């Protein structure tokens, strides 16, 4: 890739940068990390009008080159050519929001002063028009000294023009752009005044602004209605995860069964047949069927982000977060952690206060990540009847919602305790922009979902598959003599026996003990591990093999055990990826070890209390 | 008058900001948001059921949210801004 011209897309947050990036590169994107830091590096290939390829990098949005948080540092270092492993970009595309010129032009002036070949994308001109703002791009270009192209990224307007101009400025190369007046380094106030003057000059006509956003905010930011709206949205999200996912999940389940039958038909009985059927198809298949639920969850999170609602959620939550010593801003990484703690922990890079950030990292694993969904899904389907309670609300969805709430309450209490002890410090502030509302382009949401689906399937095909293969081998050998259960006689069974001594008091049986160790690799493995073990135990018994995993669980576990298992998963075993990203983010082993320790203690206590209470009331 | 005491949707402009009551990074961010002496400002919403939540204000064409303690460090005067603004 190094031979391609490198172009950086840079601008304020909420300037529509990512939509422009998607519109320019389509699905040809590469997600990665900058070396040494976990800020996501988003790069894609863009073909100029004459077909020449260019590598386009979408930099984290920032308000100035004076970084306030780790991700803003990346943007600064990148455009200055100081980012490790990156060269100085050949050109900049500065994205400015047409309806917020005063503010965005100030940063644009700072970037133009760097002297790199530059083109400005005057983005979201349609929303500016909606807001009663009419602009003259030519005046802007003359004042800024660089080409200015009006664009509407979400409607693909102006993109060809932008690509053409980009080609022209790349051809001009390092030669100084004739248009540009010499721009001496200006101080902040001078640039602000200059930006304001240029914005005034470019505005042809203007009427009072932001009617739609203001109207929605009257509800979304209302102390009472806003809270009802937020809780309602979260509730619908969790109901949808269960009710929408059923048809596609059934279809996937059918495919997995068909694949298993194909293996049986094609291969003679023997060790290869057993390995493929029990270890690979049975194990990985049990996880794959949860893809629809995970995508539905990501769909909601992507929508909340793309519409601009996420910042309102942070606003609504700040009062509560302040009580436990956090800022409302921490709510965004925490909500992302519902999908996965790894991007959640990476998203804490937008938090400037170090203590605040540490606390958020430490409690992020308490947010119920999507990897826990297969486990919750399996146990809830097996033990909680699928009936409706008052008002047509599904009982299964309600239980799932309560498990999420338990995680949130646990996280808040943990944050409070951490802020009083290991992360002691002054309460941090809350200061953020509330972006305009906008309707996201379906393609942008689809690209996001596609990326998440690929990541999930890669996990299933690598780490989950590998863990399962190891588990299958450990659970299959040595062969048990007649009359002894394979799952107890095998190596895995003996290890589980040892673990069982520790977890028996909290109601865990041998099945669970066996699943606990491999869940450290990935939480979903709990499901595939149990599926594999049951498949091995069933052996050639056709009837047993044909029963669903849920049915078999319902027959073998007590309700108290199932509930204790759920309670354990609210708090416990974070996967290795989470521990690894925590180590990277906190620069050492101290905090990840601390996190593992306190979460295990919490999980043990929670499962124990649940089991003892459930047994006491006779469940 | 302090920004937190400003009635809802009453146009005003920033008279003075007590920078010493604000951390340097918050001060920088406020300036980047365009909230500095002379800027026009309007309080849109008070968050929190018990009046302890943050404050959402319109600054120029942007809406920004800040903690009450920060809004208390900003002194405003009602009326049109000194600088012609949005």
Polypeptide structure, described:
The complex is a heterodimer of chains A (619) and B (86). Chain A has helices at 17-25, 70-79, 101-112, 125-130, 137-144, 159-172, 188-202, 211-220, 225-243, 246-266, 271-288, 291-307, 309-323, 331-336, 341-347, 354-363, 373-383, 395-420, 442-476, 486-489, 491-503, 510-516, 525-538, 542-546, 549-556, 559-571, 576-586, 590-616; strands at 6-11, 29-33, 40-47, 53-58, 91-97, 118-123, 133-135, 148-150, 203-206, 388-389, 393-394, 431-434. The longest helix of chain A is centred in the C-terminal third of the chain and has 35 residues, at 442-476. Chain A is α/β, with parallel strands linked by helices and 619 residues long. In chain A, strands 2-3-4-1-5-6-8 form a seven-stranded mixed beta sheet, sandwiched between helices. Chain A has a two-stranded antiparallel sheet with strand order 7-9. A two-stranded antiparallel ribbon of chain A has the order 10-11. In chain A, helix 9 packs across helix 18, helix 11 (271-288) runs antiparallel to helix 23 and helix 18 (395-420) packs across helix 26 (559-571). Chain A is elongated and about 90 Å long. Chain B has one domain: Ferrous iron transport protein A (FeoA) (SH3 type barrels). Chain B has a five-stranded antiparallel beta sheet. In chain B, a hairpin with an 8-residue loop joins strand 2 (40-46) and strand 3. The two termini of chain B are 22 Å apart. The mean pLDDT of chain B is 85. The A-B interface holds A 63-64, 66, 68, 99-103, 106-107, 131, 188, 192, 196, 200, 206, 209-210, 213-214, 217-218, 221-224, 226-227, 311, 314-316, 318-319, 322, 328, 352, 429-434 and B 23, 25-26, 28-34, 36, 44-50, 52-54, 56, 58, 60-67, 69-70, 83-86.
């Amino acid at each position: 890739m190094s031979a391609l011209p490198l172009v950086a897309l840079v601008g304020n947050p909420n300037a529509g940068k990512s939509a422009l990036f998607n519109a320019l590169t389509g699905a040809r994107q590469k997600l990665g990390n900058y070396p040494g830091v976990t800020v996501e590096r988003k790069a894609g290939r863009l073909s100029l009008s004459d077909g020449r390829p260019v590598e386009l990098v979408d930099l984290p949005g920032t308000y100035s080159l004076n970084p306030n948080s780790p991700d803003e540092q990346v943007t600064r270092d990148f455009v200055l050519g100081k980012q490790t492993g990156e060269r100085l970009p050949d050109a900049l595309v500065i994205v400015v929001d047409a309806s917020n010129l005063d503010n965005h032009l100030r940063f644009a002036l700072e970037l133009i002063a760097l002297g790199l070949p530059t083109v400005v994308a005057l983005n979201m001109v349609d929303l500016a028009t909606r807001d009663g703002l009419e602009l003259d791009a030519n005046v802007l270009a003359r004042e800024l000294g660089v080409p200015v192209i009006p664009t509407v990224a979400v409607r693909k307007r102006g993109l060809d023009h932008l690509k053409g101009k980009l080609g022209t400025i790349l051809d001009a190369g390092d030669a100084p752009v004739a248009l540009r007046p010499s721009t001496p380094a200006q101080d902040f106030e001078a640039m602000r005044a200059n930006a304001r003057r240029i914005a005034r000059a470019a505005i042809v006509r203007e009427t009072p602004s932001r009617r739609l956003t203001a109207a929605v905010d009257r509800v979304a930011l209302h102390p009472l209605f806003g809270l009802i709206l937020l809780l309602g949205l979260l509730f619908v999200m969790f109901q949808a995860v269960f009710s929408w996912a059923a048809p596609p999940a059934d279809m996937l389940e059918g495919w997995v069964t068909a694949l298993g039958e194909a293996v049986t038909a094609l291969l003679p009985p023997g060790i290869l047949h057993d390995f493929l059927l029990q270890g690979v198809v049975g194990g990985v298949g049990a996880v794959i069927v949860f893809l629809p639920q995970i995508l539905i969850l990501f769909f909601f999170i992507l929508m909340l982000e793309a519409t601009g609602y996420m910042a309102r959620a942070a606003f609504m939550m700040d009062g509560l977060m302040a009580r436990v010593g956090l800022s409302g801003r921490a709510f965004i990484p925490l909500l992302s952690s519902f999908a996965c703690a790894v991007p959640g922990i990476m998203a804490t890079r937008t938090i400037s206060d170090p203590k605040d950030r540490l606390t958020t990292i430490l409690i992020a694993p308490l947010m119920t990540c999507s990897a826990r969904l297969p486990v919750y899904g399996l146990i809830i389907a097996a033990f909680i009847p699928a009936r409706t309670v008052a008002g047509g609300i599904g009982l299964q969805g309600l239980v799932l919602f309560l498990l999420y709430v338990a995680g949130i309450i646990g996280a808040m209490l943990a944050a409070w305790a951490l802020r009083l002890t290991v992360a002691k410090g002054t309460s941090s502030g809350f200061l953020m922009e509330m972006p305009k509302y906008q309707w996201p382009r379906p393609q942008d949401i689809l690209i996001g979902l596609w990326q998440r689906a690929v990541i999930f399937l890669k996990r299933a095909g690598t780490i989950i598959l590998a863990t399962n293969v190891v588990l299958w081998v450990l659970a299959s050998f040595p062969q048990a003599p007649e009359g002894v259960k394979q799952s107890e006689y095998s190596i895995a069974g003996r290890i589980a026996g040892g673990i069982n001594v520790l977890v028996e008091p909290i109601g865990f049986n041998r099945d669970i003990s066996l699943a606990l160790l491999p869940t450290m690799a990935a939480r979903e493995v709990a499901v595939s591990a149990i599926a594999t073990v049951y498949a091995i135990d069933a052996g050639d018994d056709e009837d047993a093999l044909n029963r669903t995993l849920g049915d078999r669980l319902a027959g073998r576990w007590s309700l108290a055990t199932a509930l204790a298992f759920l309670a354990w998963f609210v708090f416990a075993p974070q996967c290795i990826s989470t521990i690894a990203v925590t180590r990277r983010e906190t620069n050492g082993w101290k905090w990840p070890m601390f996190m593992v320790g306190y979460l295990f203690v919490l999980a043990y206590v929670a499962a124990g209390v649940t089991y003892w209470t459930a047994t006491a009331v006779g469940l | 008058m302090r920004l937190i005491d400003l009635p809802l949707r009453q146009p005003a402009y920033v008279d003075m900001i007590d920078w010493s009551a604000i951390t340097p990074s918050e001060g920088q961010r406020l300036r980047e948001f365009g909230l500095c002496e002379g800027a026009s400002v309007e309080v849109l919403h008070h968050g929190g059921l018990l009046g302890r939540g943050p404050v959402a204000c319109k600054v120029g064409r942007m809406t920004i949210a800040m903690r009450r303690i920060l809004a208390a460090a900003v002194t405003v005067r009602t009326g049109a801004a000194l600088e012609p603004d949005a």
